[in-house]
Write a structure and sequence with these properties.
Protein Transport Mog1p, Chain A; 14 strands; single chain; alpha+beta; 2 domains
Length: about 200
């Protein structure tokens, strides 16, 4: 008789005390199986770069990623952030097997010294086996007189182009574009335009 439920506690043969917890469990199951998948389907994935989009790298530093590429990391100019006006020191865009990694960090030397440091780092990482930097560096002049240096590289995991810029505020900017030689060649104009789009605006 321990399991007997008085009639005043029953509804359609069920114990009234178990109805509310049961309904909560049922509602959660519906949410997990129906509502959340619908929200996920309605939420866009990686943003596609549009004409005029610029990445906000913080402190007035911006760069224009190639139109049509997918933004997988970073903050675009005009995007609302937790702290209005702030950017992100890292960004990444990809398209057709080619990826561009962008990073800003404190650096005290010039652009050549920064590129040397990047090459040393890449030669030690497992993601760039048999890393070999090219024999010739080229200057790249961006918007507003920003200048940097660029250099190609090869590795058994793919080829790439690295650009380095340094600024009077003690920061360095590295842009590393990786892919196969054919993929990079097909997008040379877009990559060059991105490297020439770096700007540094004075902050109020």
């Amino acid at each position: 008789m321990d399991n007997w439920v008085p009639v005043e506690r029953r509804w359609l043969g069920l114990d009234r005390r178990t109805l509310l917890p049961g309904l909560v469990v049922f509602a959660i199951a519906i949410l997990l199986r129906s509502v959340i998948p619908l929200i996920d389907q309605a939420t866009p994935g990686d943003a596609v770069v549009q004409t005029g989009d610029r990445l906000n790298l913080g402190g007035g530093l911006t760069i224009a990623p190639p139109v049509g590429w997918r933004l997988v990391d970073g903050i675009l100019i005009g995007t609302k952030t937790v702290q209005p006006g702030t950017g992100s020191p890292t960004a990444a865009v990809v398209q057709g097997g080619v990826s561009a990694q962008i990073e800003v960090a404190p650096f005290a030397g010039d652009a050549d010294a920064l590129l040397n440091q990047i090459n040393r780092n890449d030669s030690r990482t497992n993601t760039r086996p048999a890393f070999t930097a090219g024999n010739q560096r080229s200057a790249v002049t961006a918007v507003g007189g920003v200048t940097g240096v660029t250099e190609s590289y090869t590795s058994t995991s793919g080829d790439g182009v690295i650009a380095a810029y340094t600024f009077s505020d003690g920061r360095g900017l590295a842009v590393e574009v990786a892919g196969t030689s054919d993929q990079l060649s097909a997008r040379t104009a877009q990559i060059d335009a991105m490297l020439r789009s770096v700007t540094l605006e004075a902050q109020p």
